[in-house]
Amino acid sequence: MTAGRFITLEGGEGAGKSTQLRALAAALRERGLDVVETREPGGSEGAEAIRSLLLTGRADRWSARAEALLFAAARADHVEKTIRPALARGAWVLSDRFLDSSRAYQGQGALSDADIVTLHRIGSEGFLPDRTLFLTLPEGEAEARARVRDGDKSDRIGGRGQSFHRAVADAFARFARDEAARFHAIDASGEADAVTARLLDAVADLLP
Ligand code: Z5A
């Protein structure tokens, strides 16, 4: 049995994480790996129920603190019910967003980065990815991609203003700089196939 690996894809809205997660999973399966595709918020029955609480309804449905706790609770269920069992059987788990999204998004409000990390320690024993692939795309291109997909519709969090999303992008870039052993920044511009090739390169050293 090969060792399971936990890989997360992170970045701002419209960077292409979901598209690339599917393509990376297919490429890894072609190499004979057992691959689990999952996402946050969600990825387990309980966490998917919390997802709809988090992403629908009025902008002020949750306070910043309640929102951070809900993300941490969803993640705790996802880690326990989906991620750990898959890793234990030797699968590769690819997750569309994980802890670093909470640090980047919920870290903009009443809570510090240390607070978010503490919630993760309580909820998920501080469990971290083997590698985090941070997809980077200039703001205008990411907005254009999201617009093609969603038109004018957006969820509770995606609908926050431009300055919020800029602060999120800055936070991701800071994490990637400060935690270079885990984060690999990937240029997400250009054709999807070219981006997938970059992602494969970024996990090549982990392949069995
Ligand atoms: N959130 C949070 O606040 N805290 C947390 O802890 C977590 C999440 C885990 C989840 O929304 C929201 O929750 C999210 C963060 C917050 N809100 N925001 N912002 P979601 O799960 O519904 O969606 P998302 O994660 O935000 O997805 P996304 O970022 O909007 O999209 P993406 O996955 O990066 O992109 P995509 O769907 O793959 O591609 C977007 C479009 O571009 C689509 O039409 C593609 O066909 C197209 N595309 C993709 N690649 C290319 C290339 N290479 N060229 C041209 N077009 C492309």
- Assign the CATH class: Alpha Beta
Largest sheet: 5 strands, parallel
Strand-pairing-aware structural class: alpha/beta
Radius of gyration: 16 Å
The tally of domains stands at: 1
Query: Count of DSSP helices?
Result: 8
Tell me the number of strands. 5
Q: Using the alpha-carbon principal axes, give the shape.
A: globular
Gross CATH architecture: 3-Layer(aba) Sandwich
Rounded average pLDDT:
96
Termini separation (Å)? 10 Å
- Helix fraction? 40-55%
Which oligomerization state do the chains in this entry correspond to?
Answer: single chain
Low-pLDDT windows of residues: none
Please explain how this structure is put together.
The chain is α/β, with parallel strands linked by helices and 208 residues long. The protein has 8 helices and 5 strands, in the order βαβααβααβααβα. The chain has helices at residues 17-30, 45-55, 64-88, 99-105, 113-124, 139-150, 162-178, 192-203; strands at 5-10, 35-39, 92-96, 131-136, 183-187. The radius of gyration is 16 Å and the shape is globular. The mean pLDDT is 96. The site of ligand Z5A has 27 residues, from helix 1, helix 4, helix 6 and helix 8.
Q: Which structural traits does this protein have?
A:
single chain; 208 residues; alpha/beta; Rossmann fold; five-stranded parallel sheet; 8 helices; binds ligand Z5A
In short:
With 208 residues, the chain is of the alpha/beta class.
What is the element layout, followed by pairings?
Blueprint: E1 5-10, H1 17-30, E2 35-39, H2 45-55, H3 64-88, E3 92-96, H4 99-105, H5 113-124, E4 131-136, H6 139-150, H7 162-178, E5 183-187, H8 192-203
Parallel strand pairs: 1-3, 1-4, 2-3, 4-5
The structure holds ligand Z5A.
